[in-house]
Write a structure and sequence with these properties.
15 strands, homotetramer, alpha+beta, five-stranded antiparallel beta sheet, 20% helix
């Protein structure tokens, strides 16, 4: 797979806040080892900078930003220029492996073991390929899901959006005995542009990225957050308060150089 | 399909009743048109006959027996010699068709439309064949279900008993647009002997019987009750009271003459 | 309860049909005994009358109208002047009682027995009153539900529309051991006007009507269809085909004379 | 609350392993700050020591032990003498708070927000007290649940075991906006002795322990593992392989000195 050497990402989120509230945002890219970023984050209320507290995420070096907002116009802006070095794919650590085998809110793999056993088998690489093909063929890309939809609902409905594709791939591979989790990413080439969710599945000790939607090349994706499912990696989570309305959302993700192609049959990893 | 001309069935149910209770039993065969029965029903409490009220079932000529029992030893015994005449398969009436397309408690076809559309297609006969083959291959015969298990649970678990096979066939054909329901039957040849549940699916205007378990020949089965799912055809339902324990259950079903073979690929109907 | 002696109802449904399709409509009032109607039904395709087949509903004298429509503009219009005589409330028959105790698709009472037993108790009349008060206080009237929402979802969400109020009352009373079902009605006084769904619960051998929404007086309601839950009484059900779009829907329900008041604490019955 | 200064704990788990398998065990106590342990761990196959790899748990200093077992008789034995110092209750860190507000597999708080909002309110301490009282009164201690039962199932069933009590308390407080998680503990005084599961809920910045079963004094409990729900803290998780049978399980937990009393109205914290 052809590897671009970086990209630029940005997002702007605007809210009207009516009562004092706390939020956590997960919008900053995950850096480390082979990924570096020149980044800026600005959080303003009625135009005045109010700052954010950095809170480590539970997985894999991610960062969350905790914001305490009084009533007013809240604006969160993040931008980064990302440079990436060539690096071997990330190996699966023992704690990550154990955690990625446990059932989670939207990927209840404990309920799907029989279905997975009847439908998929063979080596781990074959299971990964067959689950990906199954999900790609089984789902229609339609906005039929809501915030409480889990992978079993999606399997039955035969439709969903990127969140649902990622949950179904994750749940079925996990139910087949492969460690599996999700990653929220900036995805250059995605149209319309939005935050994107993909699966990471452990095969032969290495995390492999799966995007059954096929909507953007995997090689250009830039990791934001890693978790068991969407519950862990939401771009915005209300912690306390409430009474807010999102008024504007804008996301940018551009690869340096040409957008690479993506061969769905080839394995790829997220750095 | 070779058609035996009848059979003998019987069942004995014994309970210890601790508080005054009402039950409905569905254990008498459905007669009419081409099916006749010489039958006896006895309901005793501590050895004294207490009788039962006949309550019509909502589907297809079935009979329920309502029993009011004071504390004591309750015994229900039913036996019948069934004679059947050759008859064309039963045609699907308009009211039965409409009812058999509606979702029900254990066959929530409204949740499974997408799954069914992706997995099955073609003519009604092809859908029936493919759903039957899928369920036969997908399920292991194991007692993993309980009284609240529905067809979506069974699809995910990949296992179940006759109730679950019938619910999954019914739900998937119904979700594919075919009218589908269940029938509780006496099933000569079943081992171990028990009440049995099968599906009836409308194809080309005729009710076809499906038993994806393949545990007994369809031609010998004798209908007890017909309904949308197991909720309608339970052999015993507590209406009021409670505090009872089943202490004994014995079921007999014998075909007149040799037990016929059953070609799973052939269509068959229940009279 | 003050009883008006009748009312006028009407509905007009318009669809664009793209492929040959079959529908069942349940829009005609249930007549009989104490309820009479002068009614007219018109079904047209591109302005030409195409007629409808009357199909008996499974409950309580209801009528369904089956329409076979070729592509074009389908219009269904129904209007009736309803006269009602004074009559004692309807007694609960044995078959209706048995059926109303069974779990159904949207009222899965078999899953809610423990919840109901902890929350409600006493006489049947007390259970009915307490369930009604609980549902009235527990739910916010908000359109959060969809076609697959059942009573357990509604209990957890704490919100819903008339369908959800009726399902939760029905499920909780049924789980408490009272026979319970739903009725689709024309409801003079409802605003905005729409088809309405209420519960009927058996207390002391009589069907009592419950509308925990309190949005319209029960005494003026006119029964259309009766069933276990919304699956049985939908005003429109697609039987085959598809590719249609509803383009217009208009409902009228007016009581003769003044709209009566409604004392939520008083028991009432639907004729 | 009277605080004992320690205790002794032990557990022995025996399995027959038929195919090469990997397990993670969570049976060692969580040490740190105010809790120390003299401990021993032995893992043998057919009597020969095979060792275990220590894998950090995702929460709060817990340890998992990963065991790779060839076919044979597997025996895991752990014992520890625990000493505890007096210490102020543990404060809730920002990452722990964020994680404890997210929905999880068995505590799907995102589905229960409306129910919680209608049933509970006031200060965080009042919510904690009222949820605890509700769960204590609402549930019967009965083994009706299985491995896939979540907090919504338990709420509906009105019954469960310690796992279910902990899940329901955790889900309802979390759905009310309080950070909430579970802790697996050794519980001196529990009868019959077993691994025990309790809730930890953040009130005024401090983790408070809740045990709605009331089956053992909270002050003597010794923490093993911490997580979002039982999926995180299972004492044994199969990672790969299978074909094993548990043949023996024995657990010991004894407090130094007399077992303390426990006032259910008083707040307590786990060290």
């Amino acid at each position: 797979m052809d590897t671009p050497d970086g990209g630029r990402v940005a997002c702007t989120l605007e809210y009207t806040v009516d009562t004092p509230s706390e939020f956590v945002f997960q919008i900053a890219v995950t850096t480390g080892r082979a990924v570096h970023a020149d980044e800026e984050l600005s959080v303003t209320r009625d135009g005045a900078e109010i700052g954010a507290e950095v809170v480590p995420a539970s997985h894999h070096g991610g960062r969350q930003h905790l914001v305490r907002a009084e009533p007013g116009a809240l604006r969160v802006h993040y931008a980064a220029a990302v440079r990436r070095e060539s690096a071997p794919p990330r190996r699966v650590s023992a704690p990550a492996r154990v955690q990625a085998l446990r059932p989670s809110r939207y990927c209840p793999s404990d309920r799907m073991g029989g279905f997975a056993a009847r439908m998929f088998g063979g080596t781990d690489a074959e299971i990964l390929r067959d689950v990906t093909d199954f999900v790609r063929g089984h789902l229609r890309y339609e906005p039929v899901s809501n915030a409480t939809t889990d992978a079993t609902d999606t399997l039955l409905a035969g439709a969903g959006v990127c969140r649902d594709y990622a949950h179904l791939v994750t749940a079925l591979t996990r139910a087949s005995g492969l460690p599996a989790r999700v990653a929220a990413v900036y995805a250059p080439g995605l149209s319309p542009m939005d935050f994107h969710l993909v699966s990471e599945v452990a095969v032969d000790g290495v995390w492999r990225i799966v995007d059954a939607t096929g909507l953007a090349p995997r090689a250009s994706m830039i990791r934001i957050a890693t978790g068991r499912d969407a519950a862990d990696v939401a771009f915005s989570t209300l912690l306390s308060g409430g009474g807010l309305t999102m008024t504007h959302m804008e996301i940018l993700a551009v690869a340096d150089g040409d957008l690479p192609g993506d061969d769905p049959q080839a394995q790829a990893s997220l750095r």
